[in-house]
Specification:
By secondary structure, the protein is mostly helical. Among the domains are: 103 residues, Transferase, Pyrimidine Nucleoside Phosphorylase, Chain A, domain 3; 86 residues, no CATH class; 40 residues. The protein is built from 28 helices and no strands. α5 packs parallel to α8, α11 packs antiparallel against α12 and α19 crosses α22. The radius of gyration is 32 Å and the shape is elongated. The termini are far apart. Bound molecules: 2-acetamido-2-deoxy-beta-D-glucopyranose (4 copies). The site of one 2-acetamido-2-deoxy-beta-D-glucopyranose has 7 residues, from loops. It holds the Pfam family Mesothelin.
Length: 377
Amino acid sequence: MLMKIAFGFFVVISSTHQTFTEKVHDGSLNKQLEKCPPMLVKGRVQRAAGCDLVFITPDRTDHYLLPSSYTAANLDACLNNSVLAANLTELGNLAFNKDQLFVIKRKLGEIYPRGLPQEEIKKLGIILTVYTIDDISQWNITDPDVLAEAVQNTGSAAMTIALQSHYLKELGVLDATALNVIDGPMLCTASEEKLETISRTELRKVKPIDISACSQAKKGIIFGIAKHAFQHHTANRQTYYNMMKPYLGGATAADLRILAISRINMDYETFVRLNPAEVEKLSAQRLRGLLGRNLNYLKENESQEIVQHWVDSHTAAEVMSLGIGLRKGESSAELGTFPFQDLLIPDYALNNLASVKNNNLLSSTYIAVMGIILQYV
Ligand SMILES: *[C@@H]1O[C@H](CO)[C@@H](O)[C@H](O)[C@H]1NC(C)=O
Ligand SMILES: *[C@@H]1O[C@H](CO)[C@@H](O)[C@H](O)[C@H]1NC(C)=O
Ligand SMILES: *[C@@H]1O[C@H](CO)[C@@H](O)[C@H](O)[C@H]1NC(C)=O
Ligand SMILES: *[C@@H]1O[C@H](CO)[C@@H](O)[C@H](O)[C@H]1NC(C)=O
């Protein structure tokens, strides 16, 4: 209590002092005040502790001169919490500087000690820029409009990420508004259960989502929703393909066979994002059907994993039957019958092997080492 009084006293002294110096040194402030005398210059009758200018009344909270007329200390003394609470939208639209914004943030903390409610977050405007990632973690944003508003108001990429990831952990709905605000890679961090809640109606309304960072299971979920969302376009193959394109990483071999029959001439960029484990189930004929006039890219990019996968899981004759000069290379042909003892196992791996006593662990380590070697062959 004593502390509080002492502090209050200090604020009074310092704000008076500041205004005084400003009045001496800053002619522009005086000019500004002269421009709107009835509004901002303190009347003789009004004399409340601390506020040297006039108290900011609700009807003045949208005045564009407030930021230049009230220093942070003035604002602290002349803006009542009740007015701030009632006119947050108006104040959030004014060009306050950081010091002034910190004063407003502190006052909001007094009004909402347990964190800002969603409806208020939506009104913050420029005030949002002085909130930290820690502050955000105490908010419960479940309304997609609040998320969209907050993401739009924060200037920082880190804050955007924090808002998005926080939203995904809370009970926020994944409707079109939210999906348009949450970047693909961030969306991939949502749980599978959460992704399953995306409705086809909402997916139809959003800009294409980049699912390349998602796990295969999550790609499958989003693909499944897209398949239903765009099924009414199947009559026009090209339109259907264009709409499904962003989501084909989740397609199964059966889905790909249907596309192959539709002769959609899949572009190579889309092809490399398919699931190699599904592509490898396609026959040469289907692969040709799928890529159509883009088939030659397979040869040009033959060292890529997805091409290698397919080649490795088909016979030399079938690979040749593509007719683009792609061959089962010597190294990949030999791999199938490579004797283990002839493999060059790096020293560090051998040392690890030697120190492993447990047999099961030994064999799984061996398999892991094999995996590493296979990747480098
Ligand atoms: C703000 O609070 C002070 C002190 O309680 C009061 O005198 C003043 O009228 C209030 N101003 C507004 C605009 O509510
Ligand atoms: C401030 O809020 C009050 C109460 O909601 C409202 O009547 C008033 O119009 C607001 N002021 C401005 C400038 O919009
Ligand atoms: C956010 O939710 C948690 C848990 O439901 C609750 O304890 C907390 O008070 C909420 N915070 C706000 C600002 O609503
Ligand atoms: C495939 O090969 C072509 C020609 O070499 C190259 O331009 C293209 O970038 C490659 N595609 C991918 C996805 O790497």
